[in-house]
Amino acid sequence: MLSKDRLINTFIDFVKISSLSLREKEFSSFLKNRLENLGLKVIEDNAGKTLGGNSGNLYAYLDGDGEPILISAHMDTVSPGENINPQIAGDYILSDGNTILGADDKAAISAIVEAIQTIKEKKERTKKIEFLFTIGEEIGLVGAKNIDPSLIKSKEGYVLDGEGDVGTLILRAPTHDRFYLNIYGKASHAGTSPEKGINAILLASDFLLNLSWGRIDDFTTANVGIIKGGRATNIVPDEVYLEGEFRSLDEDNLSSLWRRFEDNLIKLVKKGASYDLRKETLYRGFNIDEREKVVRRIVDVLNQMEKKINLTYTMGGSDANILNSYGIKTVNVGIGMENAHSKEERIKIENLYDTAVLIYNLIRG
């Protein structure tokens, strides 16, 4: 079967190599060499050049039978992610408390490598598998947004980047929109002629208080996260900048939020204000029916592993959002990482090993 000790050593080796977003080259070169030594064809695209980074996305190909299946993980990590010193403490691998660990997402990459190595050693037949290792996931899924679709033939796939124990399958994720809003009033002297001014800060406050924020319902959230305005206490402020976001699993709910948002902007105009609004969709949501083949395939494997299956949703984004937007029906798979993006990040060794077993069983012919 798979080697737990080798898997742990591979994971420790991987997380020690820094790969901050758009600075993944050292790790991607190491991974490329490792995969090529296992007999896989590996291609690097030009996404790094497009994004101003030092590495592209990697595509690796395992020959086998049938229609290809995509398996994906991201190579980059968040900060503080340099000079990582992983520790084994009981059933867990964790950092020394000065950095993140990097299980997000190198636990998945380590498990993929162990599964491939085991299959090669046992000379087993496999399905035809395409592996995608992306850059820049942590800074807005930018690597996945800049893949070369011609290098992927799969119609179905799995992104190994979910929280929750092995057995967690994320079938729904939100559309994530962002707004960038300038509200303009009119400047005047706050002491001698305040009545001549139109206070943009007060307009913005009134605007925000007329909208709902936080958790709107079980599947919809709204947040304003940045406010900037004013130049001095003796000047009626003539401009305020707001930046925020909407997320929803329901497109109708998202449209409703935008309608109310823009209706309230029109009310500001009637008070003498003007505004400039820019809207951006960071990624589209997805919703995969549990009866789809891509779900049934992995559920069958998890049942064979006697794992508890949890079909769920997330309010966060992943490369699965982008791959689904390309028409590749993609499930985000839980790999058991805990406390991601923090110095308390850790992963249970059992989950690391089970992730490798899951991949091994997915790719066997």
From TrEMBL:
Keyword set includes Translocase: no
Residues bound to Zn(2+): 74
GO biological process: peptide metabolic process; proteolysis
GO molecular function, one term: metal ion binding
Keywords, alphabetical: Hydrolase, Metal-binding, Metalloprotease, Protease, Zinc
Residues of the Peptidase M20 dimerisation domain: 179-270
Free-text remark on how the cofactor is bound: Binds 2 divalent metal cations per subunit.
Cofactor: Zn(2+); a divalent metal cation
Record has Zinc as a keyword: yes
CDD domains, sorted: M20_peptT_like
Pfam families, per the entry: M20_dimer (PF07687), Peptidase_M20 (PF01546)
Family, as annotated: Belongs to the peptidase M42 family.
Protein name: Peptidase T-like protein
Organism of this sequence: Dictyoglomus turgidum (strain DSM 6724 / Z-1310)
